[in-house]
Design brief:
Helices cover about 25% and strands about 25% of the residues. With about 270 residues, the protein is α/β, with parallel strands linked by helices. The protein has one domain: Bira Bifunctional Protein, Domain 2 (BirA Bifunctional Protein, domain 2, 2-Layer Sandwich). Strand 7 and strand 8 form a beta hairpin. The longest helix is centred in the middle third of the chain and has 17 residues. The radius of gyration is 18 Å and the shape is globular. It starts with about 35 loop residues before the first strand and ends in a 12-residue tail after the last helix. The N terminus is likely disordered.
């Protein structure tokens, strides 16, 4: 078991994970009518704020049971720096005026942790999972996300490892994959970010995740070749199924909307794609 430092408010988990906290046994009705079935949606490139709104709507849908199963979003973001609940502006190595010039915004996020970067070529996965209904502890979930990333990059012969002090996956002191989650009444959102073919330059403009002496790496940098996005997504899906014992079913965003409307969701999920 990874020893992961945490800061848990009423509903949020630190980016670097958490220790196990037992769920109450008498206050929660599982929001999972289909225990192992899970929808998987590949949204392509989506603005960070739009993706956050979609996650929030889907968490609400899981809680009011208009979504009768867990949902995993596969996304790529335009270039953006996000701040976790521990802050992070102090870890900028460049001025905010410089970031304005290069057109990269800074956005406050609900997840735990410090500052990080998202951009094209990085796979971001947001699992909207009923942890409480599955009786899955937060630390177990964080370790499962790490395992999914480890199995994925090892498919290309990369011997990435866990770090005993910090969540994510690592090649020595080079971080390849990050984890930042939040909880709302036992439903997870936010998730993992795996550096696949991403330009690593913007990471040099921050102290990633608030960590000293850490550099970032990517699958492409370690292999010396680019990995097709659909290949990496399919590998991650396979590993979600094997690690979390989920039966992933691909669904389009429009079909998801229709599913939720059919179940009379009070506030239908709005499209994030044109």
């Amino acid at each position: 078991m990874v020893d992961i430092a945490k800061t848990i408010g009423p509903t949020h988990v630190n980016m670097e994970g958490a220790t196990h906290r037992p769920w109450p046994t008498d206050t929660h009705q599982p929001a999972t009518d289909h225990p192992n079935s899970c929808w998987a949606i590949n949204l392509g490139r989506v603005d960070y704020n739009e993706a956050w709104k979609l996650q929030s709507d889907l968490v609400a849908a899981r809680l009011n049971r208009s979504a009768d199963r867990d949902i995993i979003l596969f996304i790529e973001h335009p270039a953006v720096f996000t701040l976790g609940r521990r802050g992070g502006r102090d870890y900028l190595r460049v001025g905010e005026s410089f970031l304005e010039q290069v057109g990269i915004p800074i956005i406050q996020a609900e997840r735990g942790g410090y500052i990080t970067y998202h951009g094209p070529g990085q796979l971001v996965v947001y699992p909207i999972v009923d942890l409480e209904g599955r009786r899955l502890g937060v630390a177990e979930f964080v370790e499962a996300l790490e395992e999914i990333m480890l199995l994925t990059v090892r498919s290309w012969g990369l011997n990435a490892q866990r770090n005993s002090k910090n969540a994510g996956i690592w090649m020595g002191n080079r971080k390849m994959g990050s984890i930042g989650i939040a909880l709302r009444k036992g439903i997870s959102f936010h998730g993992l970010a795996l550096n696949v073919n991403v330009d690593l330059t913007p990471f040099s403009w921050i102290q990633p995740c608030g960590l000293e002496g850490v550099s970032m790496t990517s699958v492409q940098q370690e292999l010396g070749e680019e990995i097709p996005p659909d290949v990496i997504i399919n590998t991650v899906k396979k590993n979600f199924q094997s690690v979390l014992k989920l039966d992933l079913n691909d669904i389009s965003h429009s079909d998801l909307q229709q599913q939720l409307l059919n179940r009379k969701m009070p506030d239908p999920v709005k499209p994030v794609l044109a």
